[in-house]
Design a protein that fits this description.
This protein is of the alpha/beta class. The protein contains twelve helices and 13 strands. The longest helix is centred in the first third of the chain and has 22 residues.
Length: 332
């Protein structure tokens, strides 16, 4: 009955991972400061005899250090997310995503943890030259969130190499599903579209809607974590995506369609995200199983998760993204 630590365990992906680990009869310690996560995500887990939850900030090393004692594996998902607030508050993102990762790795090192798996972001690729995008593509972060997540990845891999910890990093592409972040900031497609659908408001499309994304269902991400954790791999970086792309216009059709409003294209955003997942498939045998059609069908069964989110109108989006345009657009 090996003990595992999940940082960000009350979050979107973290809470699904916690449920999966408990099914495997692991002793799970979840750490979360609830800045992005929510205790309601852990309703099922909190009644489980093998589960413990601690509200703490991972950058507070002295607070979290005792929680790593006796742990075999650490899944490090705790982070600040979303583009706009990272542009507005870069120091907060550095503290959470860089200092926080250093804190986690130091706690893991001193506790003798055998392996650490890191939740990285495909945003590190920026606007790639190659599609599908392999792990060896150039690193071109366009905003502080992307940069800090990449720096966190480098810390995890370096600590793994120097201190003989089995460390691996998974770069996620456009993860969606139930329990998605509900912190009210402007960001991910489904966090914008689903409240608009619930309230009968027009869908706000950036550009012409023909831009495509590699949407990855959260259950597939959890299975990728499991596959890598149960492998002998170390010091590897692997993409985790669906291996397919779908346009924003198609997403609206799958959500049932409706009126749309066009918004200006945003600087620093790629027209396409598309993961080359051949590496993780070859090394672990993992492959995505949930199609976008089935994923949205399951997501629509959880509309209540998005009931209380703000409804984004064009005026609200323009105001929320002013800093995005100001700081990220190219100026001569």
């Amino acid at each position: 009955m090996k003990k595992v630590v999940v940082t960000g365990g009350a979050g979107f992906i973290g809470s699904h991972l916690v449920d999966r680990l408990l099914k495997e009869k692991r002793r799970v310690v979840a750490i979360d400061n609830l800045s992005n996560g929510a205790l309601k995500n852990l309703e099922r887990a909190r009644s489980h005899p093998l589960f413990s939850f601690y509200r703490a900030d991972v950058s507070n090393r002295e607070r979290i250090r005792p929680l790593f004692r006796g742990a075999d594996t650490v899944f490090h998902l705790a982070a600040l997310a979303d583009i706009v607030p990272s542009v507005q508050r870069p120091a907060d993102y550095f503290r959470a995503n860089v200092d926080g990762t250093l804190s986690v790795m130091e706690c893991a090192r001193h506790a003798g943890v055998r392996q650490v798996l890191y939740a990285a972001s495909s945003s590190c690729y920026g606007i790639p030259d190659r599609y599908p995008t392999p792990e060896g593509a150039g690193i071109r972060p366009q905003y502080p969130y992307a940069l800090t997540k990449f720096l966190g990845e480098q810390i995890v891999l370096h600590w793994g190499q120097v201190y003989k910890i089995k460390a691996n990093s998974l770069r996620f592409f456009n993860v969606y599903g139930p329990r998605a972040r509900t912190n009210g900031t402007y960001g991910a497609v489904f966090k914008v579209f689903l409240p608009q659908k619930i309230h009968g408001m027009p869908f706000t499309i950036v550009g012409d809607g023909r831009q495509t994304r590699d949407f990855t269902y959260v259950a597939d991400v959890v299975e990728a974590f499991s596959a890598v954790a149960n492998s002998e791999l170390k010091n590897q970086v692997m993409n985790v995506g669906s291996g397919k792309t779908v346009s924003v216009n198609t997403i609206i059709r799958l959500l049932g369609g409706g009126k749309t409003v066009r918004l200006p294209k945003r600087p620093g955003e790629p027209d396409r995200t598309f993961a080359d997942i051949s590496k993780i498939k070859k090394l672990t045998g993992w492959k995505p199983r949930v199609s976008i059609e089935n994923g949205i069908r399951m997501l629509l069964k959880h509309l209540d998760d998005f009931q209380d989110l703000p409804v984004w109108t064009p005026d609200k989006i323009e105001k929320a993204t002013q800093d995005w345009f100001y700081y990220l657009e190219e100026r001569g």
